[in-house]
Design goal:
2 copies of one chain form a homodimer. By secondary structure, chain A is mainly alpha-helical. In chain A, about 75% of the residues lie in helices and about 0% in strands. The first copy, chain A, contains 10 helices and no strands. The structure holds a DNA duplex (30 and 30 nucleotides).
Chain lengths: ~220, ~220
DNA sequence: AGACTGTCAGACCATTTGGTCCAACCAGAA
DNA sequence: TTCTGGTTGGACCAAATGGTCTGACAGTCT
């Protein structure tokens, strides 16, 4: 379980206890929502896993959907952090290498968050659509400019920045969402440091260097 | 309706009609399961969308889980087809280019299947785990040998075949599962032929040629 | 024609679900 | 102590859900 909020303890421990309770509920909710979706997870099960009564859960979060949104909100920020770090001052090689590593770390440390995010997307992101169209879109547009700058400068081969970003998202996310499949085939998880490094290294090598020995000029 | 194949079936029109009904149910089930998962989709909703009564649905599929498995089974074969096509006789360039195209086509033409597959993976693939460990694993192992052959032959730069396959899976799958996100950002879908071609082309270019202009060292 | 069999739907049931109500608890202010 | 307002849980409810039962209708076989 990996809580996403840095809870700074407040004045009296009494109020902090309830905040801790809220967080326990959110953690349990993340665990179950990420497994069964909004409709598939029951409040009973969440309350049970959090070790509180259902009434108590509904005291803190007035409805199931409110709880779901609260959990999702907590995820979103963490999720977009890596792409914000992309900066024109870096070399494309360093920036992309770093981005890949951070993203694979996310897939390792926040599997459930990754999955819940994926679930929400699959369902058409009814609760995030707005933010996708505004915040995320603007962010991607901004970083696309950076990438295009690199290309114009000749330090990156011509590529559509959008598709590059999708490729990076898809690849790294895959290691969290399809962990079962990967474990079935490779017998390893990102929790294994060696496998983690191999993952980062291989993605970096393919994306930056490509697979073909000599770059075919066209 | 006149049956096109007057084979020696017991009752040609009747059997065909019921099979069509079964398929309509499976289609509706795929549509709803892929959106809400096994637990999130109700039999009522599925029957309703298929245009049959719930009783009729349960007549053809004795339980919800049986229906789910039946749908999943139909998907699996289609899903593994592209990787089967990878062949040592082809050049790696041709093979990988072809694989990427086929896989993006799958993401375009079978969005719901892709999503249901993804959902199942996220939940830990309780119903597919066996086949992942046996069939899929063997298949991947076999194709990894082919890739390693290419590398030994010097027609492919050294890379872990597993991670290459994961990258291809993740990237292509992403266009189906995260279509909402992609549409929010790029404003296009794979249904748009231009966007489809751009997708295929960019993935091919990145994977085969890499991003960096010229490797200064090897 | 009549019996048989496969196909289909409406009524029904037990369980689970999200959510409400009310009574009780418990720390601190008076 | 008593009062008070935030906090907590057991009992409860209406709706939805997966699944069963009974019976009807339509072809087919004798």
């Amino acid at each position: 379980m990996t809580p996403l909020t840095p809870s700074a303890a407040v004045s009296p421990g009494r109020a902090a206890a309830s905040e801790a309770r809220k967080q326990r509920i959110r953690d349990a909710a993340l665990s179950l929502f990420s497994q069964f979706g909004l409709r598939g997870a029951s409040l009973d099960a969440i309350a049970n896993q959090a070790g509180v009564s259902k009434t108590n859960l509904l005291y803190y979060f007035p409805s199931k959907e409110k709880l779901y949104i609260s959990v999702l909100q907590q995820i979103l920020n963490t999720w977009l952090e890596p792409i914000r770090a992309i900066d024109a001052d870096q070399s494309p090689e360093a920036a992309i290498n770093h981005y890949i590593r951070i993203k694979v770390e996310l897939s390792r440390d926040h599997v459930q968050a990754s999955r819940l995010f994926c679930l929400e997307m699959i369902q058409g992101a009814p609760l995030l659509k707005e933010e996708l169209h505004s915040d995320l879109r603007a962010l991607v547009e901004e970083k696309s400019k950076v990438i295009e700058g690199w290309i114009a400068h000749g330090s990156l081969l011509p590529v559509d920045p959008h598709h590059l970003i999708y490729l990076l998202w898809g690849t790294t996310q895959h290691y969290a969402d399809f962990a079962v499949q990967i474990e079935a085939i490779s017998g390893k998880t990102l929790a294994d440091p060696e496998f983690f490094e191999a993952t980062v290294d291989n993605i970096q090598r393919i994306v930056l260097g490509g697979l073909l020995p000599r770059p075919k000029e066209s």
